[in-house]
Design a protein that fits this description.
Blueprint: E1 6-12, H1 16-23, E2 35-41, H2 51-61, E3 67-75, H3 82-97, E4 102-107, E5 120-125, H4 137-140, H5 163-188, H6 199-202, H7 214-218, H8 222-235
Antiparallel strand pairs: 1-3, 2-4, 3-5, 4-5
Helix pairs in contact: 1-2, 3-5
């Protein structure tokens, strides 16, 4: 069944290139064997359409206390086929990133608890907003100069925004993710729906499920896994009912 999960993370300077290699399953990460597809876009000209150069430059030139990248990690409906997921992800990227530089990858590892595919999206993007100024790499990540933009770096998307505004933006992103997934689930003829709201906001009187982690799952017996999975499905509204956060 489809379940809703959407979180945003920040990566510090020096971590961007390595993380990009991880999500793209490059180098020794390729042994995981769970990559479905990747993509990128809105890259500055000096990258020659190579996303790795963007993240290497962010690691080198971003301010020491600045985020080198943001990342959205989103669970995708396992009811959808690969081509349907491609279409869904393409629309998500447009909705969530806009014109900012980005790179994404979709992984589909086998769940160690239920033995089913667990497709999810890693969407990395830069907060640096492109404009009409053609900047070299080192200038793109320098401080923005509002009086003379050509002499400074690209403005950051979250610059000057309050914590409340950032929270509202995250809620809007989560809702957009849920709405798009539900559109594709309905088109597929599936009755399952996802909901971006908290259980409390949905009026569901139970605690949110805790992440078990691979180590704890590996310590569970086959019987314990079956029991846990059955309880999870019953809490989510029987075998085929809608699922929540």
């Amino acid at each position: 069944m489809a379940t809703f999960h959407c979180e945003i993370k920040s990566g510090h300077k020096g971590a961007a290139a390595d993380h990009a290699a991880y999500i793209a399953r490059q180098g020794w990460h390729s042994k995981r064997g769970d990559l479905l597809f990747t993509g990128h876009g809105n890259l500055p000209p000096w990258t020659s359409d190579q996303p790795g150069l963007l993240w290497k430059a962010a690691d080198q030139f971003e301010r020491s206390n600045g985020a080198a990248y943001r990342e959205l990690v989103i669970a995708l409906p396992r009811e959808l086929g690969t081509e349907e997921l491609r279409s869904l992800v393409a629309r998500m990227v447009i909705e969530l990133v806009g014109n900012k530089p980005y790179q994404y990858a979709v992984h589909a590892p086998t769940s160690s608890l239920e033995g089913q595919d667990n497709p999810h999206l890693h969407l990395m993007y830069s907060d640096r907003l492109p404009d009409e100024v053609d900047r070299p790499a080192e200038r793109m990540f320098s401080r923005y100069n509002p009086k003379n933009p050509a002499t400074g770096g690209c403005r950051k998307d979250n610059a000057g925004r309050s914590r409340a505004q950032l929270r509202e933006d995250l809620i809007a992103k989560r809702k957009a993710v849920a709405d798009l997934q539900n559109e594709y689930l309905a088109r597929k003829g599936c009755s399952t729906r996802v909901d971006h709201r908290t259980l409390k906001e949905q009026g569901v009187a139970r605690r949110a499920e805790r992440h078990l982690g691979p180590a704890r799952i590996n310590d569970m017996s086959a019987g314990e896994k079956r029991k846990y999975t059955a309880l999870r499905r019953r809490a989510d509204g029987d075998e085929g009912g809608p699922t929540a956060v």
